[in-house]
Each structure stands twice: as C-alpha cells, then as structure tokens.
User: Fold Glutathione synthetase from Escallonia herrerae.
Amino acid sequence: TLRVVKCGGSSTVEEIKTQEEIGVKNPMAHPHSLDQELLEQLVYDALVWSSLRGLVVGDRSVQRSGTVPGVGMVHAPFTLLPLSFPESHYRQACELAPIFNELVDRVSLDGNFLQDSLSRTKKVDPFTSRLLEIHSKMLEIDKKEEIRLGLHRSDYMLDEQTNMLLQIELNTISSSFPGLSSLVSELHRSLLDQYRERLKLDSEKIPRNSAVSCFAEALAKAWTQYDNPRAVVLIVVQSEERNMYDQHWLCTLLKERYPFCHAYKLIYIRIQQYRKVFISKQCKSVSLEKHFFNVFRCFPQLINTHNVTVVRKTLTEIDAQGELLPDGTLIVGGKEVAIVYFRAGYSPTDYPSELEWGARLLMEQSSAIKCPSISYHLAGTKKIQQELAKPNVLERFLENEEDIAKVRRCFAGLWSLDDVEVVKDVISRPELYVMKPQREGGGNNIYGDDVRKTLQRLQSEGTEEDAAFILMQRIFPTITPTILMRDGIFYKEDAVSELGIYGAYLRNKEKVLVNDQCGYLMRTKVSSSNEGGVAAGFAVLDSIYLD
Ligand code: ADP
Ligand code: MG
Ligand code: MG
Assistant:
C-alpha cells in the first residue's frame, strides 16, 4: 500500500504496511498475527528443544517432582520469541552490575548502618529480627569474612512514561535462574536460526547469556581461594524444590571434569592473548579463535570444567550433620565445607523450627565462605534499598561521583511509612505505589486498593507494625503482545517484562578477584498480574533481542 507523506517542504511516497505485512516482517512486535502454521511449528520445536536440553522444572502435578530428579519434569514456562529491548538500556543495566556488587560489599562492612537502618523493622518483623540477631552475634565476636563471594541479581523495569530504567530490587541471596535463563537465550537463538527465512530475525541480536558459567566460575575461584582441594561446596536447599534443575545446571558445571579439557582451555586462553596482539597489528581473520569459540559454544563444559565436589543439604540436615571445629572449620556429613551457597534460607518457611536457625548460626560462625554472609543478606533487604535511596547515603559507601550518579539514576521513589506526606498521597492514589515487606521469592507485595486498606489499618492500630514495610513508586512498563508457553500450551497475551542482570563478586582481603556483570534474566508476565516470580507461577522466562 502506498501513500504520499509530507516531509518538511517536500513530498515523498511511503509504503504503509498492513498489519499482516508487519506481522510477517517483524514477528516479535506482532507475535499474535504469526501465521498459524509457522506458530505451530515454532511451538513444537521449542517444546522439543527444551525437553532435550534441560530447560525444565518439576511438574506440580507429580508428587515426587520436587524431591527426585528425573521424575515429573515439564518444560519451564517461557516465551516463544525474545522480547525486543533497547540496547542502550541493556548496556546501562550491565554497567551497573559491578557498581552494585561493590556497593553491597561496602554496605556489608558497616555493621552499624545495617543494624540502625533495620532497628525499627526488627521490633515488628520476627524473621528480619532473627537475621539481625545472628548479625549482632557476629559483630560481638568481631567475626571477619576475609573471602567474600556475592552472586547477585539486580532487577529492573523500563518505565514507559519516563523511558527510565528503574531498579525493582537487588537480590543478594538465592539469585535464581542463572541456569535456565542461559538456556532460554539459547532456545531463542536456535529458533531464530532455524526459522531465519520466515522470521527474518538475526539470532546474533540476542546477547549471549553466560549467567550459569559465570556463577560456576566465581564459585570455583572462591573455592580455590579457600585452598583445600578436599573441601566441598555445600548448597543449602529446600527439602522440596521444583526449580532444582536450575540449581543442578550450576552444580553440574562445578562438578564436571572432562579429559583433555584443561589443555583445551589453556590453548583458548593463549589464543585470546594472541588475538590482542593480532588486533593491535591490524591483522584480521583469526579463524582458529573462531573455531574454539564454536567448539565452546557447542560444548560449554569444555571451558567450564572445575572438578569441585558439591553436596546438597537442607537446613535441617545441616543442623543434624554439621559441626564446628575449634579452628572454625565447618564439617557437614564428615566433609570440610569451603563454600556455603544458599538456595534456601531467604524465607521464614525455610526455618520451621529452632534447629534451622541453629544451622544458619553454625555456618555463619564458621570460616567457610558464605554466599551470602549474613551481612550480604541484610544488605539486600528492601529496607536497606530504601535507606540507600535517601539523600547523601550512597556517598557514605561509594567515592566515584559518576558511579553514584549512575546508581541514583536507576532508583525509583522509595519511602518508609513514617513519611506522613507520602502516606497521605498513597491513601489518595494507591495505584501509583507498591507496598513491600522484608520478604523474598515473590507473592508478598501489596498493590492497589489493598495498599490503602493496609495503611489505614496500620494507622488505626497505632502500632509500630508499619516498620515492617517500605513504599515504592509503582513502575509501569510498556505492555507488549507476546506468546507464553506453559504446560505445552501456547497463550497469546499482553505482557510486561522485568530485566535482571547477574553480578558476581569475589574478594580476598584487599584484592578484588572478580567483579563482573554476568548474563541476564528476562521475565515476562501477563500485564494484569502484579507479581513477577517465575517459580511463584506469575511469570515466564524470556530473552532479549537488542535493537
Ligand atoms: P521479591 O524479592 O519477592 O522478588 P520484588 O521487589 O522483586 O520482590 O517484587 C516482586 C514482583 O513485584 C516484581 O518481580 C515485580 O513484578 C513486581 N514489582 C515489585 N516492585 C514493583 C514496582 N515498584 N512497580 C511495579 N511492579 C513491581
Ligand atoms: Mg528478591
Ligand atoms: Mg524480585
């Protein structure tokens, strides 16, 4: 279809595209108008790919699927195609990762800041209070964590009206989906390659997602710093975990050992070194490097070989099997523990009795590396996020003014509930705010009219219970059409998305050994849903297509 358009003084002829034409040309922008036959082929191939490549979770309808691997698996929920995302905002989020890593480390060292900021919350929130109790004990004995390992994920939404990338939260404990998010990027790349002719999309525009190998690498480096080849990595898990395959991907990379791969890895590192020389001499075509790159892409285990022993235990098991030697060594089930990596322990339900709290304290007292330590854990609470957003607080922890400005630019409005003016506004326009308790794992926030009701209840009760929450500006991302896959069925929905950027941080005393951005997690949820957790059943895994 052609039409004449006025452009400045001159007229040009422009093609107007019908919906169908656009649908064919840009299937990501208009996935709902994908040709039915193509859609069915994509759906089928995506399901086969995810089953064969381990993009799976435990199936809720099978009772043992949360405890026995290999029983009752279903593909993880995902979007059929990646989401178009502006490259500039993606880069901005990536740049923030090392700054947030450093910020968490600095905040974690200021025990008084953590205790003071959370002192009111402590009175009314029993869970946070227990965490603070352990933290106080560590302050009393002047416990030093010389080797500090952080595996974080900072989550953002792109606010439509202001076009600003705003932080939702920073996770310092149990940052989930490094394994499955890496796979979703691969799935989308593979579909785009396979249907290149018909989709007309370039798979190279989906950034490579190295979240799982980066996390494995950081864990392995930390394990090396601990410096006992017989010591193990202890993964603290829930007794039932339907997201176990995400964790197993990481464990597998840590554990696996392949013959010759060490030599292969060394050759690759050499080639990378030479490449710098080649480039500086304007020498093109380093085909050998390309060869290795492709080999590593097909067989990631070649470069991800760490040969570290991993054991999985619940807090209850750790209580029963754990002991602390007089020199601080942590022994669990007869094995010395180098690293305690928490994929549980972030929620009150992980501590059904005093035994589990005992296990947490025991581990904290030990000389094992904790990922996270109690102070890293507390640094990731919503209350601390809100305190850091107050004027002049970032300046206490960061020196570089540019870094401070970058961090501040991604802060949304955050307030405590003792801010009278804000509370008044919230009561009159609750839909513009989110109320958050100090909880993790999704499904805990309060939205819409419930915010007003809760605030009014708290006001009438006149207790200090308000200190359990913070208030946050509600972010409204652009609503885009998408195709979600769940239980083998596709759904055409309007959705919003949240971008998480993983960060790994490792230091030994004064030496920072790792401070990297490592891969991403895109989560997409039906636009009418408030919450965003994949494991909690609200969102699906996605990847990004940079434009
Ligand atoms: P959790 O630690 O439980 O994941 P979050 O702060 O990430 O807590 O909130 C859970 C979900 O709620 C997010 O994934 C997001 O979908 C939604 N959410 C949180 N904060 C906001 C906000 N300020 N604006 C809009 N949605 C939000
Ligand atoms: Mg969280
Ligand atoms: Mg979250």
Observations:
- The pocket of adenosine-5'-diphosphate (ligand 1) is lined by residues 155, 168-169, 412, 434, 436, 439-442, 444-445, 472-475, 498, 531-533 (CB under 6 Å).
